[in-house]
Design brief:
The protein has about 300 residues and is mainly α. The chain contains 11 helices and no strands. The longest helix has about 55 residues.
Length: about 300
Amino acid sequence: MDGIVVIVVCLCLLFLALSLRSYYKYFILKQELKEEIKEKAYVYNAFEKRETRREKIISKILEYADDFSVIGQRINFFSENHEIKKKLMQAGFPYNLTLERFQGLKMFLLIVGFILGGISLVLRLPYAEAAVILYPVAGYMGAVLWLNRKAKQRQGELSFQLPDFLDTMSVTLQAGVGLDQALRDIVPYFEGPIKDEFGRFIQETDVGVPRGNAYQSLLERNESKEFQMLIKSLIQGERLGVPISRTFKLQAEEMRKIKKEKIKEQAAKASPKVTLITTFIVMPSALLLIGGLMAINMFKDNSGLFDLFK
């Protein structure tokens, strides 16, 4: 009986070793195939940016986030699927985020918050009891707030770039170039959301999407008031037969006026903030400093009140 057990154990170990060897061969062949495909499909780009260490870390985190995408779509407090999809479009899909991946990301950060809170509780760090609750909430809500900030930042950048883009388009169109050709010539020289949005517009029209539907897609993807004003003017100009070059020129002038008014508004808002900081932070700190020095001089031996000014 003992001999049979020994034989069975030996056979199990043998089959385990063979399976591990086969898996190792499969893994090596898979890596070689990936490298071969990468070499054959690689297209050289002199302007290609190297992936930074931060981007590598974020990519790794997003890979882990994929495992939580299913549960993330079920737990959708403050992150309904339609809202997240809209915000992702407005943010330009940062780091190639998809709806499923973002929903998994917030759950991954929530679990990381739980782990950090548990570690702080085990180590008896200050406020560890609150950290067990605050860290997961911060991880979950941090992802949502980050996406909202990225969307708002991109829409602001879109509005900021529009006047220069419109001036360039207006000059090109007045020279007799058509709208589609002008976009193809000018868009590559811009960076950021202008290039992304109008580049996608060109692709849609090239594959046969009606121009009206392509304009509507631009409106749905962006909520910048200036950008929506431009697209609506283009739609209206196309319907009424207004020259497009004139439309771009008028829109550029109008948006520069709006930009100046926004700068004036921000400057006006900054003045009360500076006054508040001066009133409630700088002035009390200065008074406390002067009062403290006066008190020190008063209690010093052989010191008078006016020694402070010597």
